[in-house]
Write a structure and sequence with these properties.
Blueprint: E1 3-6, E2 9-14, H1 21-33, E3 35-41, H2 47-58, E4 62-66, E5 69-75, E6 86-87, H3 92-102, E7 108-112, H4 123-132, E8 135-138, E9 147-150, E10 159-161, H5 167-177, E11 184-188, H6 195-202, E12 207-212, E13 215-220, E14 229-231, H7 236-248, E15 253-260, H8 267-274, E16 278-287, E17 290-298, H9 319-327, E18 332-335, H10 348-358, E19 362-366, E20 369-373, E21 383-385, H11 390-402, E22 406-410, H12 422-429, E23 430-432
Parallel strand pairs: 2-15, 3-14, 6-7, 10-11, 21-22
Antiparallel strand pairs: 1-22, 2-23, 3-5, 4-5, 7-9, 8-9, 11-13, 12-13, 15-17, 16-17, 18-20, 19-20
Helix pairs in contact: 1-2, 1-6, 3-5, 4-5, 7-9, 7-11, 9-10, 9-11
Bound molecules: shikimate-3-phosphate and phosphoenolpyruvate.
Residues 48, 91-93, 317, 344-345, 391, 418 line the site of phosphoenolpyruvate (PEP).
């Protein structure tokens, strides 16, 4: 599906942003491993999260959708051998976290995914999980899906420092450590998103975590998990598109309520504020360890910024939309130390640069990042390739709203990976200036 957007639009409304993708995946996984019935409210029914549900159904977890809630009947880590190949579709989170969980199971399973996921590296999880005693076989190409995994009931605990901060790698190791024979210690610097730790603590697992001298440590003891009730907040990674829309379109403002404000996720707010964005955070509350609150943003004169290396993990999924904001800012923006972008759904350094250039922006690819020279006056409508990457499609759509003329976003249906009603909300909440 291609989407046409008639530009020079503005927004002046409340937007109901979809539920958080990271927390939605984890709610199904932790619910499946818990003893008892987990109730999930406000689950994200997007392609990635549906892939997680299907994998766990295939592992015999009883998952039922009842009046907008999801009911997961957990069997305390007693999963059953899948009858089919586990298809993780486009979802890196599903794959890597599942590899950690399946390391605790004695049966054999095969995981695969779509053509994009089959290009994403998996040794980052299989190497440490093998040290714990799980067995992996790459069935086509070393480091990539499809993978055969055979776990063990006698996993060794691990002491491991992540070479690159990653919530997916950390979470895979935490899940495996819950069933290891002793205490595991995982370290990373700087800290990546900690939803797994927070949700497992809430479910009674024996986990401690702390930060000291810039190093984040998680200590895990063998644990049982209790069932929980979860109400999932809105996803700040999805909210980011509407925040930037309000910032770059004249006479605009947006209000997003009930949004996740976990400090490992709010890098986009901090960097946009450094760029001069008028953003306010209000009504913050703590919901079982997760901060949730309201975001208000309005049109602002932005200036370029150099993004700090330590902020990269806190902003990793928001870099395509941050780059759009940078194209409307005055001066240069430098985003470096972001080599991880090369192994997302697309090579997001290349695809973000291509997308911005189609609109006439001045921007350059760096080895591990990108440089954007703000040039609001030069920007024009475009026909843009999304490279079937949801975050590129949405970032391009926001850019298309702000420039003059009609733009076309190619293969825009990929937004269903994380934000299925993105275009309904975009067209109903904006109007031509
Ligand atoms: O754990 C998660 O839910 C995620 C972790 C991040 O990936 P990495 O762990 O590879 O950095 C992020 O890019 C992804 O969208 C979601
Ligand atoms: C990278 C992403 O997700 P995943 O790694 O789960 O595919 C994303 O949503 O931008």
């Amino acid at each position: 599906m291609n989407v046409k957007i008639d530009g020079r639009r503005k927004i002046n409304s409340n937007v109901i942003v979809p539920p958080d993708k990271s927390i939605s995946h984890r709610s199904i996984m932790i619910g499946s491993l818990a003893n008892g019935v987990t109730e999930i409210e406000n689950f994200l029914f997007s392609d990635d999260c549906l892939a997680t549900i299907n994998c766990f159904k295939n592992l015999s977890t009883d998952i039922e959708i009842r009046n907008d809630k999801i009911i997961v009947k957990g069997n305390g880590f007693a999963l059953s051998a899948p009858k089919q190949i586990l298809d993780c579709q486009n979802s890196g989170t599903t794959t890597r976290l599942l590899l950690g969980i399946l390391s605790t199971q004695e049966f054999e399973s095969i995981l695969t995914g779509d053509s994009s996921l089959k290009k994403r590296p998996m040794k980052r999880v299989t190497v440490p999980l093998s040290q714990m005693g799980a067995e992996f076989e790459f069935l086509e190409k070393e480091d990539f899906l499809p993978i055969k995994v055979k776990g063990s009931k006698k996993l060794k605990p691990i002491e491991y420092t992540l070479p690159i901060p990653s919530a997916q790698v950390k979470s895979a190791l935490i899940f495996a450590s819950l069933k290891a024979e002793g205490k595991s210690v995982i370290k990373e610097s700087p800290k990546s998103r900690d939803h797994t730790e927070l949700m497992l603590k809430h479910a009674g697992a024996n986990i401690k975590s702390w930060e000291k001298d810039g190093v984040y440590t998680v200590e895990i003891l063998p644990s049982q998990i209790s069932s929980i009730k979860i109400k999932i907040p809105s996803d700040i990674s999805s909210a980011a598109f509407f925040i930037v829309l309000a910032l770059i379109c004249e006479g605009s403002s947006v209000v997003i309520e009930n949004c996740i404000l976990n400090p490992t996720r709010t890098g986009i707010i901090d960097v946009l504020k450094q760029m001069g964005a008028e953003i306010k955070i209000e009504d913050v509350e703590n919901r079982n360890g997760e901060l949730v609150g309201k975001i208000v943003a309005r049109s602002s004169n932005l200036r370029g910024v150099k993004v700090e290396k330590n902020d990269i993990p806190r902003i990793i999924d928001e870099i395509p939309i941050l780059a759009v904001a940078a194209a409307f800012a005055e001066g240069k923006t430098i985003i470096d130390h972001a080599s991880e972008l090369r192994v997302k759904e697309s090579d997001r350094i290349k695809t973000t640069v291509e997308m911005l250039k189609s609109f006439g922006a001045e921007c350059y690819e760096l080895e591990n990042g990108l440089e954007i020279i703000g040039s609001r006056e030069k920007l024009k409508s475009a026909v843009v390739n999304s490279y079937k990457d949801h975050r590129i499609a949405m970032a391009a759509s926001i850019m298309a709203c702000a420039v003059e003329g009609e733009s076309t976003i190619l293969d825009a249906d990929c937004v269903s990976i994380s934000f299925p009603n993105f275009y309904d909300i975009l067209f109903s909440s904006t109007k031509k200036i």
